[in-house]
Amino acid sequence: MKGIGKRHPLDEQTVKSIHEQMDGPIDGPHNVGLLRPLSTAQREYFAMKSKTVVLYMGDEVGLLLASEEEAALRAMPAGYTIEQLNGLNIGCGARTISPYLIPIDIARAPPSDQASGAHQASTASAMLAMPNDLPFKPDSVDFIVSLHMLEHVENPEEIVTYWLSLVKPGGGVGIVVPDWRYTWDSRNDRAPLSHKWNPTPSLIEGMYDKHWKHLAQLEHLDTYRMKMSFDFVLRKPGAFAPFQPPSVSTVRSGYELNQRGAFISDASYGTNPDKSSMRRLTDSIKRRIRQRFI
User: Fold this and answer.
1) Cβ(84)–Cβ(77) below 8 Å
2) I need a labelling partner for 123 at 20 to 30 A (CA). Which of 100, 101, 222, 264 fits?
3) In degrees to the nearest 10, what's the CA dihedral of 59, 61, 62, 63?
4) Can you count the helices (H) and strands (E) in the chain?
5) pTM to 2 decimal places
6) Contacts of 245 (CB under 8 A, 6+ apart)
7) Structural domains present in the chain
């Protein structure tokens, strides 16, 4: 590895030599030592040529995660902060991204079977739902983000079409998926919940032309530098209308409701709170007596 400049592209002989020296998992100490002298771009090139998973080190990991999240959040309608919007984070795993997103997943705890291919991290507060059957009406959600989830379904075209039906006009869907050339070939993936197709930016362009072009605009595609994954954002046409709370001037107070005969109380139903309280107390005493002597 000596003599290889970090700006110099790797030649085929160097790729072959490094690959032959590798042993064990890609992130094991031996392999980390082999790959550490390389630049990020060189390690990405090595992964693609050797058909191994690209190895990121140190701050690169945090940079990749931040890049993915920033890219997906471009699905937010322009001119609004996330606090003003209703967004879904589908297939969240442990990446909640923001407390203002609604986390959704198929489980709230890691699977007991590590070989299943499911997320190995989770969010305890996640809403449980399938990605193709969410409890939201059409045109009711401001935006959707989904990071490293879509590659786990066998019908991504249908899933994205369904998500587009849920977002409002002007809303967006922001997705991050792995580029299989820098991870692995799903045709060899035997885990039932793992990857089921091989994403690339060119494939997304093909899906867009065939399935989504009449539904949305492909606003962004493959916008950040790191190669392990890539993003795309679909924007639904139309003018966006955010949630608006009612004006205080239109909301009636309890006093106004009472003055108009619309105030709800015991008198509305002919009930007596004192008699009801005494009856509940008597019934409770009777239950305790029966429980004591039975």
Assistant:
1) no
2) 222
3) 80
4) 9, 7
5) 0.88
6) none
7) 12-57 (no CATH), 63-235 (3.40.50.150)
Q: Which two tokens stand for residue 32?
A: 């980390």
3-class DSSP assignment, residue 56? coil
Cβ distance 100 to 85 under 8 Å? yes
Kindly report the length of the chain.
Answer: 294
DSSP string, 240-291: -----PPPGGGSPPHHHHHHTT---SHHHHT--HHHHHHHHHHHHHHHHHHH
